[in-house]
Amino acid sequence: MVFDLPRFESEPVIGIVRGLNESSLEGVVDAAFAGGLRFLEITLNTPDAFHLINKINNKYTQLQIGAGTVLSVEMAKKAIDVGAKYIVAPNFDEEVSTFCVKNKIAYFPGALTPSEIKKAWESGATMVKVFPASQMGPDYFEIIKGPFGKIKLMAVGGVNLRNIKDYLGAGADAVAFGGSIFSTQRMANRRYEEIHKDIEEFMFAVKDFYSKMRGVERQTAKNFGGGER
Length: 229
Description:
Layout: H1 5-10, E1 13-17, H2 22-34, E2 39-43, H3 49-59, E3 64-68, H4 73-81, E4 86-88, H5 94-102, E5 106-108, E6 110-111, H6 114-122, E7 128-130, H7 138-145, E8 153-156, H8 164-170, E9 174-177, H9 184-188, H10 192-228
Parallel strand pairs: 1-2, 1-9, 2-3, 4-5, 6-7, 7-8, 8-9
Helix pairs in contact: 2-10, 7-8, 8-10
C-alpha cells in the first residue's frame, strides 16, 4: 500500500513518535488508532526504529506508518524496505528528494525560510514541513501563503490543542504533534488512556475546524448564488 495522499489531505494530521520501546508499542499504537489517528511517524533516532516500523506496518494495516528524522538516502531506502509509506525530515536533502521523486514516495522535508520552502516544493516535496513552526507562529503561514499560495505546508513543532485552529486558519495544510502527547514518560509508564484522550481531542479539533470551514464555504456559495438570481 502506497501513501494515501487524498486521505491525508482529508485527515491532515501526523503523530510523531520518538523514543518508543517495543514493550509499549502495541499500547501506544492502539491508543493512537482508537483516538482517530491514521498517520504515524517513527523517528529514526528511536532505538530499533526500523524494527518498530516493520512491526507496525505488518500488524496495523489501516494505519499508514512513516519514517521521520531521515537524513540520508541510505536511511530512506532502509525505511521503505521495512514498510514506511512516507519519509519525513527536519531538513531538505537533494539526494533524498531525488530518490523519493524517482520512486514515487511521499516526502515531507523540513524548511523555514521562503527560499528553503520554495526550493523544497519545486524539488518534488509532497508537503513542506515548516519546522520549527513555534519559532515563527501561525501568522507566518499566512505570510508565506501570500506569494506561495499553491505550496502545501505542514506545521510541525509546538502545535497543540490551544493553537491548532490558529495554524489551520492561517493556511497550514497539515499539522503534526509529537512529545506533547507521545512523551517518553507517558509511553514508558504505559499511560495509554491519556494518549488516547489527547489524540481524540486533537483530531476532534481538526475535524471541527474543517466542518465549520465547509459550512462557511457553503453559505458563501449560497449567498453568491442567491445574488445572481
